[in-house]
Design goal:
Length: 108
């Protein structure tokens, strides 16, 4: 008698339920994350894999530790890099971060 009826508040979009309308917020957010984070990372991984597959003898490279050297031997998983005259180091292919232009080591 003295208590009025309490009605549920409707969603902001007429004819749409509250659960379905929240989906409209997540779709643009996922698209934004894809273009700003996921897609550039996939592109970088593809470039890195292509560079590792193209490694050849006498290429000048930089390792993940910052060591510069010349590739002496390439196998499936490892690369032998000459870092000084007569000093060779065996590193994993994944640790090669950059391929340098020819003659870079002599210029330094």
């Amino acid at each position: 008698m003295f208590i009025s009826n309490a009605y549920a508040q409707s969603s902001g979009i007429p004819g749409m339920g509250g659960d379905f309308s929240s989906l409209f917020v997540f779709i643009p957010m996922f698209v934004l994350v894809y273009f700003l984070m996921i897609r550039p990372q996939m592109k970088r991984q593809k470039e890195q894999k292509a560079m590792m597959d193209a490694l050849a003898k006498n290429d000048e490279v930089v390792t993940a530790g910052g060591v510069l050297g010349k590739v002496i031997k390439v196998t499936d998983a490892y690369v032998t890099v000459e870092i000084a005259n007569g000093t060779e180091v065996i590193v994993q292919k994944a640790s090669i971060t950059m391929l340098l232009p020819k003659g870079t080591i002599k210029a330094i």
